[in-house]
Amino acid sequence: MLAVLTGGTGGAKLIRGLSLEVEPRDLVIICNTADDLVLYGLHVSPDLDTITYTLAGLADEEKGWGIKGDTFAVLEQMREYGWQTWFRLGDRDLGTHLTRSAFLREGSSLSQATDRIRTALGVKASILPMSDDRVETRIVTPRGEIPFQEFFVRDRWSDEIERVYFAGAERSRPAPGVIEAIRGAAGIVVCPSNPVTSIGPILAVPGVRAALREVERPIVAVSPVIGGVAISGPAAKLMASAGIEVSAFGVAKAYADFIDTVVVAREDEGLGVRIAGLGLRAVATDILMNNLADKRRLAHEVLALLGPMC
Amino acid sequence: MLAVLTGGTGGAKLIRGLSLEVEPRDLVIICNTADDLVLYGLHVSPDLDTITYTLAGLADEEKGWGIKGDTFAVLEQMREYGWQTWFRLGDRDLGTHLTRSAFLREGSSLSQATDRIRTALGVKASILPMSDDRVETRIVTPRGEIPFQEFFVRDRWSDEIERVYFAGAERSRPAPGVIEAIRGAAGIVVCPSNPVTSIGPILAVPGVRAALREVERPIVAVSPVIGGVAISGPAAKLMASAGIEVSAFGVAKAYADFIDTVVVAREDEGLGVRIAGLGLRAVATDILMNNLADKRRLAHEVLALLGPMC
């Protein structure tokens, strides 16, 4: 069994590749939920959905979010009613949020709702929220504190960041199966997701980081940064604000207490010596995933680094 | 000011006509809400919406429900998740239910939510739910008790009806403005809606029928029945089950304690003597409303029967 830690877009690319290289039933994906938000009374879990849609073959891989070919009629009507519509919920996508919200209202946990959704969509891999408890990434800016999606989507990460924290993290518990997956995995992959706001919240759930540190089997992280630039999104800005060097070395250092290997871009091969200084192995390869072949090849290489899977 | 009691489809036709003949600001529409239902956690008010969409120029007048040209992408996705989708919620229509549900969750009353929705859609007439309290039409059948929409939409009124009742009616209060509108109106119209499950619930809200009885100004009802056949829907079956004669006379008798005049089809002119026996005036005219001209003409005639409006 392979355990995978991930956020949304960047992680989804590698997970798409992994799903072609590993028996899907042997994949357990532990997903960030600190970007979740409540919109129009609906519980929206962007990262869970991106991963679920990716594995269901529904994802809009070009946009990196939502369902391929989705329409936006509901949102147009919501605008008529004066709602803000900067968070682009598609119509079919809304079906997911309605379903999740109805399940939660009926008393299901987020894990249970996630499981029912992925099962209905024919996804064989397990998808686990990091926690069933509400953890919320908050961005502290000079103009005040804002939720992650306002910073990320509404304001296109234009704000200066003073600090990032995960409200509720200290009281949260790992979702059922998370610690078991980490302990039982033949190998663990940390996806090329934002180390601050995608992987960071997962590590902030009490017990997760400690479990990762105790793992005997190999843990491989893939860098989301190439030559000092984030592959996508606001990772660079967020890393800098968290005092993490914006480089594959910075990523390796952020995970140094629990990973064994970091996969870096060929451009970053020169960082190998510094990374070795952290007691980690750096492996350089092509880490940009522009198409399905890239995803599969990188997944294949990552799996090879994990050694023979039990 | 003209007060109007209505259900959905049939009433909406006359209201469309009235809106062309009366200054919209002078219209107060009191609407059945006992057909309301909760679907996927959303509060759906079919009659309120039909009236609101009609006055906003959005109604699908051909189907008699929903928004013209609406799509059904959300519902298709809900079916993927295993939900029942016999109640056809369109995408734009869902925007209304999301909005209403969000307002209710924030603490708005149904009246307040209805008012915000009609205002956002540019509707000038007042639209009042009969009550802000939950009243629910229940159909008792040989196979058990079912909610109105299951009887009406899902099962196409195929069940034998033993009894109809309005759960919660006895504890409900008229919504703010309902009694005031009845008392303050220069005239009152009872739309050609189903007397059992559309007008019946409004009359079952404590205080409404008593207020109507006390009104000095004229009250005119339009028959939803022509020659023993309901113009649309299950009115005939429901009337029969309630012991109401399925005729314009039956309608007149059901309202005889508070109306002055009943407008009947030309085919039913012969019922005039029996209706006069109830102490009511019967006026025969063309009551089928197949197009906008019909709606406007009938509205004009009904208004003439109310005499000069103050």
Give a short overview.
The structure is a homodimer of 310-residue chains. With 310 residues, the first copy, chain A, is of the alpha/beta class.
Layout of strands and helices, then pairs:
2 copies of one chain form a homodimer.
Chain A: E1 2-6, H1 9-21, E2 27-31, E3 37-39, E4 42-44, H2 46-56, H3 73-80, H4 91-105, H5 110-120, E5 126-129, E6 136-141, E7 144-147, H6 148-154, E8 163-167, H7 178-184, E9 187-190, H8 199-204, H9 208-214, E10 219-222, E11 225-226, E12 229-230, H10 235-241, H11 248-254, E13 261-265, H12 272-277, E14 281-285, H13 292-305
Which terms summarize this structure?
14 strands, 38% helix, Helicase, Ruva Protein, domain 3, three-stranded antiparallel beta sheet, 310 residues, seven-stranded parallel beta sheet, 2 domains, homodimer, 13 helices
Structure, explained:
The structure is a homodimer of 310-residue chains. With 310 residues, the first copy, chain A, is an alpha/beta fold. Chain A has two domains: 2-129, Orthogonal Bundle (Helicase, Ruva Protein, domain 3); 171-305, Rossmann fold, CATH 3.40.50. Chain A has helices spanning 9-21, 46-56, 73-80, 91-105, 110-120, 148-154, 178-184, 199-204, 208-214, 235-241, 248-254, 272-277, 292-305; strands at 2-6, 27-31, 37-39, 42-44, 126-129, 136-141, 144-147, 163-167, 187-190, 219-222, 225-226, 229-230, 261-265, 281-285. In chain A, helix 1 (9-21) packs parallel to helix 2 (46-56), helix 1 packs across helix 13 and helix 7 runs parallel beside helix 9. The radius of gyration of chain A is 18 Å and the shape is globular. The A-B interface holds A 40-42, 70-71, 73-78, 80-83, 90-96, 98-99, 101-102, 105, 116-117, 120-121 and B 40-42, 70-71, 73-78, 80-83, 90-96, 98-99, 101-102, 105, 116-117, 120-121.
